[in-house]
Design goal:
Length: 323
């Protein structure tokens, strides 16, 4: 099932959401207006707002607060992507020039700051303190996760426990906040909001593990995996599994490649093949399916409405993607 088919039950809400988001980020500063128009044109698949709307629809509760919740999430997500591009010195985002490529780092950082502050004001203007708390916690978690990853990457001493802590904070917290804020916008009690937040966390963990696996996919250009995570010295789950299950000499060789030879394609190719033959991909796939199962089992405890099936379809689309 493609994304348009999944989106169909709430398509009218997504169209209206585009207008809501565009209006929320408008500014009287001419340069900022130009940049925000660029942001709106370059928006991606809008997976995260979809999670917000389906979570609210699960409880038959899509309201104006749901629109604000989705807008807060999209502002946060967009701001973090802009800041990430600056940190990573990346000139491309979703096949287009990134903001920092077009307007340089200083303006990009300020635009990211503008989006975060505009989100804060949007929540305060409507007394959406519960939504603000959920989204602000995501900002904190994502920042902690990124810094924890940077700290551990220096020495390459990330074990599986630390890995899951990093991806829980860095990736899963945002999807968790989508389901939590959508549920809160529908007026559900705190215990239900927490259960939905946990489902989102499971989805986010499975999503990130899938991302790890895709870096070793041979179905891309010329049948070669990208190996991008290795080049960036990221300790992904397949790599961690391979390190744990290798002898001392092999571990030393692997660490040497990740630390010092990420630009040597022959060495990277050897490491990719080592990860594949060691069972690292299969192990990561098993873990991904485990967390997907936890998400679906918990979701089955929620009201049996059409939105629940839509959420299951969106989970499948998110986790079983090919790129």
């Amino acid at each position: 099932m493609n994304l348009n088919e999944i989106k169909a039950p709430i398509a009218k809400h997504m169209v209206a959401f585009d207008d809501h988001f565009r209006g929320a980020i408008q500014s009287k500063v001419p340069l900022l207006s130009v940049i925000t128009r660029h942001i709106v044109k370059r928006k991606g698949k809008q997976i995260r707002p979809l999670f917000v709307f389906f979570a609210a629809d699960l409880f038959s509760g899509i309201t104006q607060r749901t629109y604000r919740a989705a807008t807060l999430i999209e502002m946060l997500h967009t701001a973090t992507l802009i800041h990430d591009d600056v940190v990573d010195d990346s000139n491309e985002r979703r096949g287009f020039f990134s903001l920092n490529a077009l307007w340089k780092n200083k303006i990009s950082v300020l635009v990211g700051d503008y989006l975060l502050s505009r989100g804060l004001l949007l929540a305060l203007e409507h007394d959406d303190f519960d939504l603000l708390k959920i989204v602000s916690n995501s900002v904190k978690e994502m920042s902690e996760g990124e810094l924890l990853q940077m700290e551990k990457a220096r020495a390459l001493n990330i074990n599986e426990e630390v890995y899951f802590e990093i991806i829980r904070k860095k990736t899963a917290s945002l999807i968790a906040s989508c389901l939590a804020s959508g549920t809160a916008s529908a007026g559900q009690p705190a215990e239900v909001v927490e259960k939905m937040r946990q489902i989102g966390e499971y989805i986010g963990i499975a999503f990130q593990i899938k991302d790890d696996i895709l870096d070793f996919d041979f179905s891309g250009l010329k049948g070669k995996p990208t190996g991008g995570d290795i080049k960036e010295r990221k300790m992904t789950l397949p790599l961690i599994y391979t390190l744990v299950n290798s002898d001392k000499e092999t571990r030393r060789k692997i660490i040497g490649i990740v630390k010092n030879e990420g630009s040597n394609w022959e060495k990277v190719r050897w490491l990719i093949e080592k990860i594949r033959t060691s069972g690292g991909i299969e192990y990561a796939s098993t873990q991904m399916k485990h967390y997907r199962g936890l998400a679906l089992d918990a979701l089955n405890e929620m009201p049996d409405t059409p939105a629940r099936q839509s959420l299951k379809q969106l989970i499948a689309f998110t986790i079983e993607r090919k790129h």
